Amino acid sequence: MPRHRSSPEPSPASWDGIGFLLSQVASHSSARFAAGLEPLGLKPSHAGILRVIGEADGSSQQSLGERLGVFASRLVGLIDDLESRGFVERRDNPSDRRSYALHLTPAGREALAQISGLSRRLEGEVFASLDASERARMADFLRRIAAQQGLRPGVHPGIGKSGGPDSEPAPPRRKARRREPGPA
């Protein structure tokens, strides 16, 4: 009769390490944030863009892309989406006729207020087990780690990447076929 091996218990290092725990809490928090945005018809990348435009109303698309680290081709589509929903408007840039200045509309400001409320509520819920002093220390630790890792302050690193927190998966890349040299 064959012996059945039971799977070994995971070692504490695999499920109790700081990296795993941080990833676990971040994933849980991100999923809750995305779910909270659904009634507004928004995705996390929209929320990040609205926040940055709200901080620098009248910025150009180029400066917004640089601030977020987002490729222009991805940013144009996200801004088009926000504009079609009435949250953002493009206006002629008075200092550069070749570009547009981005502004929040009244609906965009209202959406941003709702996003801010959602963020505060979720932060309170997710970190309810920590007192104010512990939350402040946690925030300080995370800011130090983010700075040491070269992350942009206030910018989710997945916002501009294919496969980011709310983008469609990138199509598989096809290998370019090598052309054989023809006869000389």
From TrEMBL:
**Mind telling me which Gene3D superfamilies this protein's record contains?**
Winged helix-like DNA-binding domain superfamily/Winged helix DNA-binding domain
For this protein, the record's Pfam families field holds: MarR_2
Give the stretches traversing the membrane: none
Superkingdom of the organism of origin: Bacteria
Residues of the HTH marR-type domain: 15-147
Give the matching InterPro entries: HTH_MarR-typ, MarR/SlyA-like, WH-like_DNA-bd_sf, WH_DNA-bd_sf
Q: What is this protein called?
A: Multidrug resistance operon repressor
Q: Which organism is it from?
A: Aquisphaera giovannonii
